[in-house]
Amino acid sequence: MKSQLVLSAIAALLVSVAVPVMAQNAPAPNESQGTGQQQVMPTMPHQDWHEGKRVPTKYRHYNFVMKDWKSHGLDAPARGQKWLGVNGDYVLVTTKDWKIAKIVPGTPQ
């Protein structure tokens, strides 16, 4: 009985030490700071994109800017334009007024 109590205490001690250590070794969440990694926003699929319309404010964030446009087979953006990647689609916008200049669907419609 006494040895069972000691073993339970040791097990509890080991668990209480192991959990914080494992949490420290956990990878940090992916904070893609403008690396052009695609962000997924389920509210606006490619059927809703229209040239000449303004991009909603929630997409005017550095996380949506495609800095690696060349590796995605996109044309170089002109001065004052940027490629955004949203839901698998590529949208060329004018940064002055955030109007859509060109749409390249990345997924089948």
TrEMBL record:
Signal peptide: 1-23
Region annotated Disordered, chain positions: 26-52
Keyword tags: Signal
InterPro entries attached to this UniProt entry: RcnB (IPR024572)
Pfam families: RcnB
Domain of life: Bacteria
Biased composition (Polar residues): 30-41
Name of the protein described by the UniProt record: RcnB family protein
Species this chain originates from: Paraburkholderia denitrificans
